Structure formats: structure tokens, C-alpha cells
Amino acid sequence: MVAAVVALSSAVANHRAHVAEIQDRAEQAELAREEETHRMVDLERLRIARESHDVVAHTMATINVRAGVAAHVPADRPDQSAQALQVIKSASKQGLRELRSILTVLRAVDADEPPNRHPV
Questions:
Q1: Prediction pTM value
Q2: Mean pLDDT for the stretch of residues 60-66
Q3: What residues contact residue 80 under an 8 Å CB cut-off, 6+ apart?
Q4: What are phi and psi of 76, to 5 degrees?
Q5: DSSP H stretches of helix in 1-120
Q6: What is the tens place of the pLDDT at every residue in 92-114?
């Protein structure tokens, strides 16, 4: 009888240890999934930041070149100067529109995240 009680208590202890190990593994797997999700979000933010940089850099380069053309066009060719200024206006408007749309997406994502997350 004593042997049966010892065997039973040993089996219960082993079962509890096994259940605790399974719960620990599940918690670790959940943490790993959360970390992977945050890593993927951070990588996407980095990609968006690079894309934003490219948009702004390209727009600014276009504006710079066209402003240089407008500044160096002789006074007797106002049509070229006006065309350069029109390109500057169009490029800056398009660049700002693209940047605004990217920032709108980022702000929408930020609104969905918990307040303790910090952007990259």
C-alpha cells in the first residue's frame, strides 16, 4: 500500500512537472512570436523610412536642378524660366503628397500599437 502511494505521488509529481514544462514552452513560443512580429514591424518601418528618404532626396534634387536652371536662364528666355519654376512647383507638390501619404500610414500604425512601443 505504501509503495502504491509513493508510486502514485511520484506519478502526480512527474505529471505536474511535465505540465509546467509544456506551459513554459508555450510561453516561450509566444514570446518568440511576439519578438518576431516586432522585428518584422521594425524592418518594415526601416524600409518605409528608406523609401521616404528616397522620395524626399529625389524631389529635392529635382527642385535644386530646376532652380539652378531658372537662376541661370537669360532674361530674354522667360519661357524656360517659367517652365523650370513650374517643374519646381509640381515636383515639390508631388514629393509632399507622397511624404504625407507615407506619414499617414505610419501614424495609423502608431495609433494601433501599445503606448510603450518606440519607433525605430
A1: 0.53
A2: 86
A3: 69, 70, 73
A4: -80, 5
A5: 2-72, 78-112
A6: 888 888 888 878 877 776 676 55
Residue type, 7: A
Rounded alpha-carbon distances, angstroms, from residue 112 to 2, 21, 120: 59, 33, 16
Any residues with CB less than 8 A from the CB of 120 and at least 6 apart, and which?
A: 42, 45, 46, 49
How many angstroms separate the CA atoms of 55 and 72, rounded? 26
Rounded CA separation 86/96 (Å): 15
- Domains of the chain, by residue range, sit at 39-113
Q: What is the pLDDT of residues 16-62, one digit of tens each?
A: 999 999 999 999 999 999 999 999 988 888 888 888 888 888 888 88
Contact call for residues 70 and 85 (beta carbons, < 8 A): yes
CATH topology classification for 39-113: 1.20.5
